């Protein structure tokens, strides 16, 4: 829903009440741009006895960045709000994408700052324009309902709760609000740099006269559709069992689900097994789904889907586990093994060592046991800690049922 004729401060206060009404302390992330400056003022008038703190990240990417952060500090001081400048100590570029690295570092610094100061959440100044621009950029990449759905107003990430109370308000209304109060903000010159796709989209939205609020509303509707899909995926998986880095799903739950829910179950379960940040490709998922529904074993992106009597067993593909590089503690992005001495490594148990273990006693299937971790000294297998209790070594799967729920909801 977009903000109509009502006062925008009243709307932001109402959203803050809903999202953060019960929190004793809140952080506000303020870049110095118009959106987050407006947010800071609105949070200040909402505070009513709550502890509010403000932070600005100085990325050091422009010569004026320090002075801009100090300008925010002065505005915060005038409102009686404590302010901190967090400086990005840039090491080597991590990803080669400077903007992505800067964003990552910013969120990390803000999260750490909030935790250090016992702030339960951080408010951000995203607006309806951000929603609309993002939706258009994603349309151009062929995104589906997940990519097109609006940003969430309340989200847990990086050990912090992030709040976006201004998602329904346009940037123009915030600018008008600031001007009416003679409040200053900083116009970052990169906001005018057409090398950035977002800036080009912003300008073409203006040129076409398209309604930012209408497009942001579309994003919100798509978000609701996505949330409904998530709900049904979780419902279909309610009786799934998760154990030993493996998932057992009642086959009827899969067979009775609509095809889009079936597809999502396969996507989420594959990512739960491999821990990969990106889902497998659409065509691969469709083929795997057809095979599973026909009762056939199939592999997809290093995951084995094995229909057995009344359930579908979803586990690491043994060949993929055998290819996983040897490790010291975290192995195959699935297991944590403790107790290794120097010179010892973890690799897959593999078929040759199977006879030396009591794999059936733990309820492992043959494939699952082959793909389970074993401790080696050179080429000699010393222990299979997932398959039998051991005095020295212990094996714990990295992901649990809760992680599966998180994966479904995050996507
Ligand atoms: N350098 C920064 N320091 C603190 N918070 C920031 C910084 N950059 C962005 N943010 C937070 O993230 C939100 C969204 O970031 P985005 O890059 O879209 O905003 P912006 O264009 O830099 O500035 P604004 O949203 O304040 O006009 C901001 O509204 C603000 O809450």
UniProtKB/TrEMBL annotation:
- Residue span(s) of domain tRNA(Ile)-lysidine/2-thiocytidine synthase N-terminal: 27-203
- Catalytic activity as recorded in UniProt: cytidine(34) in tRNA(Ile2) + L-lysine + ATP = lysidine(34) in tRNA(Ile2) + AMP + diphosphate + H(+)
Sorted alphabetically, which SUPFAM superfamilies does this protein's record hold? Adenine nucleotide alpha hydrolases-like
Name the InterPro entries for this protein. Rossmann-like_a/b/a_fold, TilS/TtcA_N, tRNA_Ile_lys_synt, tRNA_Ile_lys_synt_N
Q: What class of enzyme is it?
A: ligase
Keywords from UniProt, A to Z, are: ATP-binding, Cytoplasm, Ligase, Nucleotide-binding, tRNA processing
- One GO BP annotation of this record: tRNA modification
**Positions bound to ATP:** 31-36
Presence of the UniProt keyword Membrane in the record = no
User: What's in the GO CC field?
Assistant: cytoplasm
* Major location (coarse): cytoplasm
User: What Gene3D superfamilies is this protein classified in?
Assistant: HUPs
Q: What PANTHER family does the record tag this protein with?
A: TRNA(ILE)-LYSIDINE SYNTHASE-RELATED (PTHR43033)
Record text about domains: The N-terminal region contains the highly conserved SGGXDS motif, predicted to be a P-loop motif involved in ATP binding.
Summarizing the function annotation, the protein's role is: Ligates lysine onto the cytidine present at position 34 of the AUA codon-specific tRNA(Ile) that contains the anticodon CAU, in an ATP-dependent manner. Cytidine is converted to lysidine, thus changing the amino acid specificity of the tRNA from methionine to isoleucine.
Instruction: Give the family per the record.
Output: Belongs to the tRNA(Ile)-lysidine synthase family.
Q: What name has this protein been given in UniProt?
A: tRNA(Ile)-lysidine synthase
Question: Origin organism of this chain?
Answer: Paracoccus seriniphilus
The coding gene here is tilS
């Amino acid at each position: 829903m977009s903000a109509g004729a009502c006062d925008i401060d009243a709307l932001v206060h109402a959203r803050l009440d809903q999202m953060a009404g019960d929190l004793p302390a809140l952080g506000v992330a303020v870049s110095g741009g118009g959106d987050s400056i407006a947010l800071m003022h609105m949070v200040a008038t909402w505070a009513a006895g709550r502890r509010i703190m403000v932070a600005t990240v100085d990325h050091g990417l422009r010569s004026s960045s320090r002075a801009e952060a100090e300008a925010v500090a002065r505005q915060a001081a005038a409102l009686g709000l404590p302010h901190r400048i967090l400086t990005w100590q840039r090491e080597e570029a991590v990803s080669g994408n400077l903007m992505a690295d800067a964003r990552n570092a910013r969120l990390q610094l803000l999260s750490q700052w909030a935790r250090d100061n016992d702030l339960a959440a951080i408010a951000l100044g995203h607006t309806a324009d951000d929603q609309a621009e993002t939706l258009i950029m994603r349309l151009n990449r062929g995104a589906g309902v997940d990519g097109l759905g609006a940003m969430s107003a309340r989200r847990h990430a990086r050990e912090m709760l992030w709040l976006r109370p201004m998602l329904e308000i346009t940037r123009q209304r915030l600018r008008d609000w600031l001007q009416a109060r003679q409040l200053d903000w900083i116009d970052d010159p990169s906001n005018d740099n057409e090398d950035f796709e977002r800036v080009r989209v912003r300008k073409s939205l203006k040129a076409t006269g398209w309604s930012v609020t209408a497009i942001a509303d579309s994003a919100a509707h798509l978000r609701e559709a996505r949330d409904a899909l998530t709900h049904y995926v979780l419902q279909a998986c309610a009786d799934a069992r998760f154990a030993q880095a493996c998932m057992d799903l009642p086959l009827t739950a899969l067979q009775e689900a609509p095809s889009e829910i079936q597809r999502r179950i396969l996507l989420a379960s594959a990512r739960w097994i491999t821990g990969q940040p990106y889902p497998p490709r659409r065509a691969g998922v469709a083929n795997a789904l057809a095979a599973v529904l026909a009762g056939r074993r199939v592999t997809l992106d290093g995951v084995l889907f094995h229909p057995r009597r009344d359930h579908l067993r979803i586990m690491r593909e043994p060949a993929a586990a055998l290819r996983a590089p040897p490790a010291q503690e975290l192995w195959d992005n699935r297991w944590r093994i403790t107790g290794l001495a120097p010179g010892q490594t973890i690799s897959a148990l593999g078929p040759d060592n199977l006879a030396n273990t009591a794999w059936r006693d733990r309820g492992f299937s043959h494939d699952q046991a082959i793909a389970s971790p074993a401790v080696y000294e050179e080429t000699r297998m010393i222990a299979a800690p997932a398959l039998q209790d051991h005095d020295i070594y212990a094996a714990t799967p990295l992901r649990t049922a809760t992680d599966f729920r998180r994966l479904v909801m995050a996507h």
